[in-house]
Design a protein that fits this description.
- The structure holds two protein chains of two kinds.
- Chain A has one domain.
- Helices cover 73% and strands 4% of the residues of chain A.
- Chain A contains eleven helices and four strands, in the order ααααβββααααβααα.
- Chain B has a single domain, classed as ABC transporter involved in vitamin B12 uptake, BtuC.
- In chain B, helix 2 crosses helix 10 and helix 3 packs parallel to helix 5.
- Classes of the chains: A mainly alpha, B mainly alpha.
Chain lengths: 291, 312
C-alpha cells in the first residue's frame, strides 16, 4: 500500500504547486507577463506565517489569513510600482523587470534577516491515520483540505462575482472590456491580489508541511509552479490545478523510485516535452499566429 | 579599404593594451588581487558578448547561459585533469562540446518564442547543472579540482578572438540576417531568410564562447562546483547585456567591465550587491528599456576619428 501513501504525498505537494500556479496563470492570462516575483511572494507568505505563529502566537488559521491579506497587499504594490508602467513595453522588458523584482525581494529579505533557515513551529501534531491500509499523515490531509477550499473559493470568485466577470472580460480582450466600462487597472490589481493571496497561503502550508523555510525557498517552487501552469495550459484556471497536481505526483514518484537527486530535473524535462509536443498545454487551444 | 584600416587599428590597440598590462604585471604594479580581477573581467566580457549575440543580435531571449558555461568549464576540467590535455586543447574541447550542447538545446527550443523560450532555456540550464551533480566522474555535488592555469595572456587573447568573431559575424550577411530576425521574425521569414537556421547558428556561436569563458573560469579557480552555474549566474550575465544595451557589443563590454569592478569592491557585501543589481535592472527597464547604449556602439560616439576604445 506504499504507493497510495506516495500518491497522497504527491497530491499534497501538487496542491501547493497548484496554489502557486494559479497566481501565475491568472496574471499571465490577464497581462501576458510571467511574474517571476510570484515565487518570492510565496516565500514572503511563508515568513509572515512563521512570524505570526512563532512570535505573535497566533492560531494558525488566523496566521494563514493574515499571510494571505499581507501577500495580497504586497502583490498589488509590486504591480502598481513595477509592472503598471510596462503595460505597453516589450515582452523582454517586462520579463527582465520581473526578474529584477524577484531578486530585489529575495536579497532585501536576506539583507534584513540573513540567509539562515527557520524551523516552522508545529501547529498540529503529526499523526498518521490508516486509510485502505495506507499510513496517511494528518498534515497531508490538512494541506489538501485547505487547498481544495481555496480553489473552490477561487472558482466561486471567478465565475459568480462581478470582479470575476471583469477579470474574465479583461483577459479576453482588455480594450473591449475598457469600452464596456470595466476599470481595467483595478481589475488587474485585483488579479494580482487574489493570485498573491493564494501564494501566501501556499507559503504557510508549505512551511507547516516541510517545516524548513529560507529566503531563497521561493525560487524553485516558483519555477515549478510556472511549469505546472504551462503544463495545464497557461491562462486557464483548471489547467493550473491539474498541472500542479500532475507535477507534484510525478516528482514524488521520481523520488520514491530512488532518483531523488533527479527530482528537480523532472519538472524541467516535463516543461520541455510539453513545450515541444503541445505548447498550449493540456487544456489549451491552439491559436494561429497572425501577422 | 577603410574597414580593414579600422580593423588593424583595433588589433594594434588590443596589442597595446595587452603589452601595457603585461608590463605592469611583470613589474609588480598589479598584484595577484588585480590580476585576478582582470581575468574575471575578461571572463565576464566573453560571457556578456556571447550572450549579446543571442539576445542583442538575434533577439532570442535566453536566460540559461550559465548552463553552457558549465559545459565548457567541466569539459575543459576533464580535459586537463583526467585526459592530461594541454590547456589550449582543453579550452577548445570545452568550447566545442558547449557549442554542441547549444545545438542540442537550440534545435528544439528555438521554435518557441519570447517567454516560453526564456523558461525553456532556464530549464535546460538547470537540467545541465543537475546532470553534473549526478555524475560521479566529475565529483558530483562536491565538484572537481582543477589546476590554476589561466593567466592574463590566455584570458585576454580569448576575449580578443571572441570579440573579433562576433563583431565580424554581426557585420556579415549572416549577422544581418540575425538582426532582421530580431527586428521582425515574420518579415524576415517572408524575405526568404531561414530563420530557424540563423537562430540555431547564433545560439551555437554564443554557446561556443560561453564554453571558452567557462573553460578559463574553471582554470582560474582551484575547484568548480555545479552550484556555481545556477540560474543566478545566468541572471548575472543577463544583467551585463541588458545594462549595456540590447544590441550593442561595446555596450555589453563596458557594462561587463563596470559591473566586474563594482562586484569586486562589493565582494564583502553580497546582499548589497544583489540589491543594487536588481534595482539597476528594474530602473533601467522602467526608464530606458533598450539599455544604456541602446543599439549604438561606443565608436558611434567618436565619429571624428578612430580613437574609440570599444575594446578593452
Amino acid at each position: 500500500m506504499e504507493w497510495i501513501q506516495q500518491l497522497v504525498n504527491g497530491i499534497s505537494l501538487g496542491s501547493i504547486y497548484a496554489l502557486i500556479a494559479l497566481g501565475y496563470t491568472m496574471v499571465y492570462g490577464i497581462i501576458k507577463l510571467i511574474n517571476f516575483a510570484h515565487g518570492d511572494v510565496f516565500m514572503l507568505g511563508a515568513f509572515i506565517g512563521f512570524y505570526a505563529i512563532a512570535r505573535w502566537e497566533m492560531h494558525f488559521i488566523l496566521a494563514l489569513l493574515l499571510s494571505m491579506a499581507l501577500c495580497a497587499i504586497i502583490g498589488v504594490i509590486i504591480e502598481r510600482v513595477a509592472y503598471k508602467r510596462l503595460r505597453n513595453a516589450t515582452r523582454i522588458a517586462a520579463l527582465i523587470t520581473a526578474i529584477g523584482v524577484s531578486l530585489l525581494i529575495e536579497y532585501t529579505v536576506i539583507f534584513f534577516r540573513g540567509a539562515s533557515p527557520e524551523a516552522y513551529p508545529t501547529v498540529i501534531e503529526s499523526r498518521n491515520i490508516e486509510i485502505f491500509g495506507a499510513q496517511i499523515s494528518v498534515q497531508a490531509l490538512l494541506i489538501l483540505a485547505i487547498a481544495i477550499i481555496l480553489m473552490l473559493l477561487l472558482q466561486f470568485i471567478v465565475h459568480q462575482t462581478k470582479i470575476g466577470k471583469a477579470m474574465r472580460a479583461v483577459s479576453h480582450d482588455a480594450d473591449a472590456a475598457r469600452l464596456m466600462g470595466i476599470n481595467v487597472d483595478n481589475t488587474i490589481s485585483a488579479t494580482f491580489a487574489i493570485g498573491s493571496a493564494l501564494a501566501g497561503a501556499a507559503g504557510v502550508i508549505f512551511g507547516i508541511y516541510y517545516t524548513r523555510i529560507e529566503p531563497l525557498m521561493g525560487v524553485l517552487p516558483g519555477l515549478k509552479a510556472f511549469v505546472a501552469a504551462v503544463l495545464g495550459g497557461i491562462g486557464i484556471i483548471p489547467g493550473a490545478m491539474v498541472g500542479g497536481l500532475v507535477l507534484g505526483v510525478v516528482e514524488t514518484f521520481v523520488s520514491a523510485l530512488g532518483y531523488s537527486l533527479w527530482r528537480d530535473a523532472a519538472a524541467f524535462v516535463i516543461l520541455i516535452l510539453i513545450l515541444i509536443i503541445r505548447p498550449s498545454g493540456i487544456f489549451g487551444k491552439n491559436t494561429r499566429e497572425k501577422v | 579599404m577603410k574597414k580593414s584600416k579600422a580593423f588593424w587599428g583595433y588589433i594594434v590597440l588590443a596589442l597595446v593594451i595587452y603589452a601595457v598590462v603585461q608590463v605592469l604585471i611583470n613589474s609588480g604594479v598589479l598584484n595577484m588581487y588585480y590580476q585576478n580581477m582582470l581575468i574575471t573581467m575578461c571572463i565576464n566580457i566573453m560571457l556578456a558578448v556571447s550572450l549579446h549575440i543571442i539576445i542583442g543580435i538575434t533577439g532570442q531571449f535566453s536566460i540559461g547561459h550559465a548552463g553552457f558555461m558549465a559545459v565548457g568549464a567541466y569539459l575543459s576540467a576533464i580535459g586537463t585533469m583526467k585526459l592530461e590535455l594541454p590547456f589550449v586543447s582543453a579550452i577548445i574541447l570545452g568550447a566545442v562540446v558547449a557549442a554542441l550542447a547549444g545545438l542540442l538545446v537550440g534545435i528544439p527550443t528555438l521554435r518557441l518564442k519570447g517567454d516560453y523560450l526564456a523558461i525553456a532555456t532556464l530549464g535546460f540550464a538547470e537540467i545541465i547543472r543537475i546532470i553534473f551533480v549526478n555524475i560521479e566522474y566529475v565529483g558530483g555535488a562536491a565538484g572537481i579540482q582543477v589546476r590554476h592555469q589561466a593567466t592574463w595572456t590566455y584570458a585576454f587573447f580569448a576575449v580578443v578572438i571572441t570579440i573579433l568573431v562576433i563583431a565580424n559575424f554581426t557585420k556579415s550577411r549572416h549577422g544581418r540576417a540575425c538582426i532582421a530576425i530580431r527586428e521582425d521574425e515574420i518579415a524576415a521569414d517572408a524575405m526568404g531568410i531561414n530563420t530557424t537556421y540563423y537562430k540555431v547558428i547564433a545560439f551555437a556561436i554564443g554557446s561556443f564562447f560561453a564554453g571558452v569563458a567557462g573553460a578559463i573560469y574553471a582554470h582560474n579557480f582551484y575547484i568548480i562546483q555545479p552550484t556555481t552555474f545556477n540560474f543566478l549566474k545566468s541572471f548575472d550575465i543577463l544583467i551585463f547585456v541588458v545594462l549595456g544595451g540590447l544590441g550593442s557589443l561595446s555596450g555589453s563590454v563596458v557594462a561587463a567591465i563596470f559591473l566586474t569592478v563594482v562586484t569586486t569592491y562589493l565582494q564583502g557585501f553580497p546582499e548589497t550587491r544583489m540589491i543594487i543589481y536588481s534595482l539597476v535592472l528594474i530602473l533601467v527597464m522602467l526608464y530606458r528599456p533598450k539599455g544604456l547604449m541602446g543599439t549604438k556602439e561606443v565608436t558611434d560616439l567618436f565619429k571624428f576619428g578612430k580613437k574609440g576604445g570599444s575594446k578593452a
